[in-house]
Amino acid sequence: MADQYNTNEEKILKDRHAKEIDLINRDPKQINEDVVKVDFEDVIAEPDGTHSLDGVWKASYTTFTVSKYWCYRVLSAVFGIPVALLWGFCFACISFCHIWAVMPCIKSYLIETQCLSRIYSLCIHTFCDPFFEALGKVFSSVRVALRKEV
Predict the structure, then answer these.
(1) What span, in angstroms and rounded, lies between the C-alpha atoms of 134 and 139?
(2) Residue 10 pLDDT more than 70?
């Protein structure tokens, strides 16, 4: 039983750092579904009555599609790794600040407000509770009658 637990723990630790990348579905969470999915028909459209020559339309479609494809490939080949390095550094800094600065500040704030809330609660129970209890006893003998006269 202990060996099985150690094996599962080793698998979890190994999987956390050695995650395989899906080369087919490169947007599994579909974060770019509506944003950058741009096709020829999304950018260039000719309304009825205003059509170019069929050959020009086909050549425009091919030119747009191929140039977009290769321009993206060249840009990602040249700038992909440096930009990934910058974003990795940026998110590492954000994570570092969140873990080592933001959360301790929030925790400290919650501890201080808990102390203040106890003092506030003590004051309310000490001063306001007796006052409102006395008011309740004073007005407990008041009777209200509602009549509707026609």
Answers:
(1) 9
(2) no
Give a yes or no: residue 146 inside a domain.
Answer: no
Residue among 37, 47, 46 nearest 68 (CA):
37
Q: What pLDDT digit, counting tens, does each position of 88-116 carry?
A: 999 999 999 999 999 999 999 999 999 89
53-92 tens-digit pLDDT: 999 999 999 999 999 999 999 999 999 999 999 999 999 9
The answer as to whether 147 is a domain residue is: no
Q: Would residue 3 count as lying in a domain? A: no
Q: Rounded to whole angstroms, how far apart are CA atoms 12 and 18? A: 10
Total structural domains within the chain: 1
Please determine, for residue 7, whether its predicted confidence score (pLDDT) is greater than 70. no
CA distance 67 to 61: 10
What residue numbers bound the domain in which 97 lies? 26-141
Is residue 149 in some structural domain?
no
Sort residue 30 into left (φ over 0), alpha (ψ -120 to 50) or beta.
left
Residues 6 or more apart whose CB falls under 8 angstroms from that of 38 comprise 68
- Both structure tokens of 125: 């129970």
Residue appearing with tokens 């001063």: 127
Opening angle at CA 129, ends 126 and 135, nearest 5? 135
